Amino acid sequence: MLVPGKTSGRAGIADVARLAGVSIGTASKALNDRGQLREETRARVQAAAEQLGFIPSSVATSLLTGRTFTVGLIMTDHHGRFSLPVLHGAEDALGWAETLAFVCDTRDDPIREQHYVRSLLGRRVDGIIVAGRRAEARPPLITRAPVPVVYAFARSADEGDCSVVTDEEGGAVLAIEHLVRTGRRRIAHVTGPHGHASAIARVAGVSRALRAAGLEPVGDPWYGGWSEVWGRFAAAALTREHPDVDAVFCGSDTIARGVADGLRESGRRVPEDVALVGVDNWAPIAEECRPPLTSVDLNLREVGRQAGRLLLQAIENGHTPGVHSVDCQLVVRSSSAPASGRT
Amino acid sequence: MLVPGKTSGRAGIADVARLAGVSIGTASKALNDRGQLREETRARVQAAAEQLGFIPSSVATSLLTGRTFTVGLIMTDHHGRFSLPVLHGAEDALGWAETLAFVCDTRDDPIREQHYVRSLLGRRVDGIIVAGRRAEARPPLITRAPVPVVYAFARSADEGDCSVVTDEEGGAVLAIEHLVRTGRRRIAHVTGPHGHASAIARVAGVSRALRAAGLEPVGDPWYGGWSEVWGRFAAAALTREHPDVDAVFCGSDTIARGVADGLRESGRRVPEDVALVGVDNWAPIAEECRPPLTSVDLNLREVGRQAGRLLLQAIENGHTPGVHSVDCQLVVRSSSAPASGRT
DNA sequence: TTGAAAGCGCTAACAA
DNA sequence: TTGTTAGCGCTTTCAA
């Protein structure tokens, strides 16, 4: 089955050495700028390598050094809305092709996850990033990994692990502060399912920020789904029950878009009568919203960047346990423009 | 810099052999079910491996066999709407962790692409999948790769390469046929920018299907952008210029959603007065559309699956040049329900 | 300044 | 049935 020595047509260092008329060891030194070599020799070897299109096999050096400059990125989020930005951030931190990432989509299946982890370990990855799909804590990897693991976005339920998360509560605070600063006083909160970790965190942030501003909430938080339908429904009910509402903070851009449509259809103008802020800053929704939606960006890319950085650090200098939190960022669009001259 | 022999705490086959009281060679045979061994020995070795949590280093076997069971997946599509399904399909074909994929996002930067390719080649990937972002042909990889390359979604401009694409023209035909079959006769086509490959292919499909049905197009194709704003604008203009229009085929779900809103706001009911079909079957848009949108699915996952399959085939049995086309699939939702009893 | 040789973890011939 | 050895492609001592 295994045919040894299937050295493809690729040039090896032996070919380079032969072409340059030096020994393999000398060629190695020349190519890696190590040791003491005559400049002429070095140049000759490099020219030979160039000519042959020599690309050193990192398989060989990995075997030698025990390091592969390779990590695993496990994503559980099938459509990638959350995992992709994390991947991009990780790529930033991993130095654009310095270290490469094996991406594994587990489809939320623990069996598959285990498979992937084993496979990654067999490939001797230097570390693993686990990118979750939601803000809930997730169970740690089943397989005990002999390499560092960093959880991104969804933190590990094990406090001894290293996780990077988004400060969702802080994001809500940002949103409310923005609304207050732009003159809104009657602020409602429409969010996703009751009991959902993100919803809980944001509700906490809303309360905190409203209290700090000396404002009463407009009714209880409105729990529902993450859909536009829910947003439209909530908008209708909200204007009926609290006709004086002048701002709505929504648990997601999707909800916010529904609220925007719902408000418009019940005769309220956005942002003149009611300001709107969503969460996710998901371009296809936020930018197509009428009007374009002010939104809290979860800064997932930065989460990925941090995760990558912490992973490299763990690989080089050991574990950094704990939950590392990344701030959200408010992206202002027209849906929250001040009603009048109030600033 | 390179510290040789940094054998981490991981168990190696030598440890397994020692624990089982056999030689390394014997341990290898036992673990790989090769050679003739006493059953008892095999079991003892396997137990030892189990106990030590031994996972064989594929780095070593890769060096030996010249095959890494690893591929590169280059994506140029930053938000992953097109590349992710391709990745998932590829994972299907690559046998869920049998072969692992390094995912590289080039951000459409040729320099970065070159970097990644070199890095992949250094890691001795068995092959490369290049997942494009649009239906336009793309220039082939700059670096001549000594391994098979398959282009997915965006085909290579070089006909000698192997590409897997979606049959966009066929998708348009599917849409028109569906509309005709459900009794529509005055069918308009609103699409993206003039000159865009996808738009061109779809326009061709529309003409073909209309001609086959013996119908006249309702005016020329409406070229614009891929946005909802364009859809809304087009809907208004369309109903003004062609009040008898009873169906609109849109170049994307986003456009279709704009058209849906535009129609509703000019007093047309969807689907009672006007049926609507989009392209992409992008859940967050198609499902949130009012009403939920019938859409042509590009079958990107199947594109990825094919690409993976062709790549493996190329790795094992050599190159399969040419453009391989995958059919689209119509996903029917309420936006195209028959107006009355006509079937 | 260069070459020769050992060895990374493992498999597969060959020897015992 | 088991052990020994060579070697995959490279880096790095150490000797020349």
From TrEMBL, chains A, B:
What are the entry keywords?
A: DNA-binding, Transcription, Transcription regulation
Give all residue intervals belonging to the HTH lacI-type domain. 11-65
The record's section on InterPro entries has: HTH_LacI (IPR000843), LacI/GalR-like_sensor (IPR046335), Lambda_DNA-bd_dom_sf (IPR010982), Peripla_BP_I (IPR028082)
SUPFAM superfamilies per the record? lambda repressor-like DNA-binding domains, Periplasmic binding protein-like I
Q: Which GO terms describe its molecular function?
A: DNA-binding transcription factor activity; transcription cis-regulatory region binding
Q: Which CDD domains does this chain map to?
A: HTH_LacI, PBP1_sucrose_transcription_regulator
PROSITE patterns, per this entry?
HTH_LACI_1, HTH_LACI_2
The protein's name is Transcriptional regulator, LacI family
Q: Which organism is it from?
A: Actinoplanes regularis
